[in-house]
Write a structure and sequence with these properties.
A seven-stranded parallel β-sheet has the order 1-2-3-4-5-6-7. By secondary structure, it is of the alpha/beta class. The longest helix has 14 residues, at about 120-135. It is built from six helices and seven strands. It has helices spanning about 5-10, 30-40, 60-70, 90-100, 120-135, 150-160, and strands at about 1-5, 20-25, 50-55, 80-85, 110-115, 140-145, 170-174.
């Protein structure tokens, strides 16, 4: 099921959703909007695949925290694609997201597009630590371009990713 607007999603019957694509790019979604969206996502306990596009909004760490709580409750989730680029997310938001992903035990494919935020080595390394220790992820796509990462940091993260033996497909951009 595809939704291009927050109001359309809020009005839908969420009990039957298994595959969901929400594309809210450039919608001026702020903290309140992210919290409202998270509330709707909390109803999706049977979701298998989620694509959530919030490119170029005004999402900050508190909004990511609430979205993360919702994602953490999706215990059947197998594929997750989050496009949170060009927002105002820092390490705190990445750590919230990583903690919630630990609860998604069935997750096989994770695609995080987070370019143009304020994520440093700490936030990036935290997300990789999740993938290494707490999941069966076989497909990982991680885009951290234009964040607060030094070239040395990117190399360390890349080395950590290469140590994940169960990965079948990898795309890392930094």
């Amino acid at each position: 099921m595809y939704f291009g607007g927050l109001d359309d999603f809020a009005k839908s019957d969420t009990s039957s959703h298994q595959n969901l694509e929400l594309n809210f790019k450039r919608n001026s979604i702020n903290q309140a909007g992210a919290n409202h969206l998270a509330f709707g996502l909390c109803q999706l306990k049977n979701l298998l695949n989620l694509t959530l596009g919030l490119f170029s909004n005004q999402v900050q760490d508190d909004g990511v925290f609430h979205l993360s709580l919702a994602i953490g409750g999706m215990i059947n989730l197998k594929k997750l694609r989050l496009v949170l680029s060009n927002n105002q997310i820092t390490d705190e938001g990445m750590i919230s997201l990583s903690r919630s992903l630990k609860l998604c035990k069935k997750l096989l494919s994770l695609r995080l597009t987070l370019f143009e935020n304020n994520i440093s080595f700490i936030g990036a390394q935290n997300s990789i630590s999740y993938v290494r220790k707490h999941s069966d992820i076989k497909v990982l796509k991680l885009n951290l371009e234009s964040n607060n990462l030094l070239r040395r940091d990117a190399q360390i993260i890349k080395q950590s990713i290469f140590k994940i033996r169960r990965l079948v497909k990898l795309n890392f951009q930094c």
